[in-house]
Design goal:
288 residues; alpha+beta; Jelly Rolls; Phage tail protein beta-alpha-beta fold; 13-stranded mixed β-sheet; three-stranded mixed β-sheet; 37% strand
Length: 288
């Protein structure tokens, strides 16, 4: 009976795991008790294999988690953006990761990726800024209507609305329009991009006039009156309205060091205009 029970147990075990028993080698000369002991010892060894498989699975999961963390960190470095913006009435100097500087005019801003700088030197500009760029790999200044590519130089960029103007002070800069037209500027040369992407280049007799805004001086030559008034609004942080459209062209200059009402009077007189103060921060220009 014992032999039959023993044979019955072995048969059940074999049906549950034929693969296991096919790999177990036990000499036939062993008696029944020795065979049973050897089978039990073989069965006891099976969990070790499971532990090893579990250990490999944990290692693979840890490796996958590490890869995800690295990808997340790389994405953070690539797309993290730092923004420097100046409100109306304020000028500010911003420093780029390589020590280059940008003097920002009122209501202007730059955006760049500080943690990705060693791989790509790129700055997005809105408004007006004067750049002093340290030598190194090429740097791109991107705006809505154009791109300026530089390598160790200084230059002024005006990028407001549909207008894009670049003046090279030192070194060389490349100006590229949205239609991929491009020119190379050397010191004292000035480029403007029109709405169609065409580029006009000229040499300036007094290139320093371009960045006089850094010294609170603002010069205009046959400039639409509305643009001059918009500059006054930016520099003084005020609102200047008109009771009609004045299609005048203004040539002259003003200093931000003077009171705003004195500046408005200076701008209005040549055209027979005057202004009314509506509040501390709001004025209205009218025809006399």
């Amino acid at each position: 009976m014992k032999d039959e029970k023993h044979s019955h147990k072995n048969a059940n075990a074999g049906s549950a795991d034929d693969g296991f028993f096919s790999r177990v080698e036990i000499p036939y000369e062993k008696d029944r008790e020795e065979v049973w002991d050897m089978l039990q010892s073989k069965l006891a060894e099976r969990p070790a294999g499971k532990v090893r498989r579990m250990h490999k699975r944990v290692m693979l999961m840890a490796l996958a988690a590490s890869v995800l963390i690295l990808l997340g960190w790389a994405g953070f470095m690539r797309y993290y953006t730092e923004t420097v913006a100046t409100p109306a009435g304020i000028h500010q100097t911003a420093q780029l990761p390589d020590g280059s500087t940008v003097e920002l005019n009122a209501e202007s801003s730059i955006r760049f990726h500080p943690y990705w700088w060693r791989f790509s030197r790129s700055v997005a500009l809105e408004g007006e800024g004067f750049f002093r760029i340290t030598k190194g790999r090429r740097l791109e200044v991107l705006s809505k209507n154009g791109k300026t590519v530089v390598l160790g130089t200084s230059f002024n960029i005006f990028a407001r609305g549909e207008r894009y103007k670049v003046t090279c002070m030192t070194g060389r800069v490349k100006v590229v329009s949205v239609t991929e037209k491009e020119v190379i500027l050397t010191p004292d040369y000035h480029a403007e991009i029109d709405a169609e992407g065409n580029i006009t280049v000229k040499k300036l007799d007094k290139p320093e006039v371009t960045n006089q805004w850094m010294h609170n001086m603002f010069s205009f030559t046959a400039t639409p009156f509305a643009e001059v008034i918009a500059e006054v609004e930016r520099q003084y942080g005020i609102i200047v309205g008109t009771n009609k459209n004045f299609n005048y062209k203004y040539t002259g200059y003003f200093s931000r060091n003077k009171p705003v009402e004195q500046v408005l009077d200076l701008l209005c007189k040549p055209f027979g205009l005057t202004f009314v103060r509506k509040s501390a921060k709001e004025y209205l220009i009218v025809q006399k």
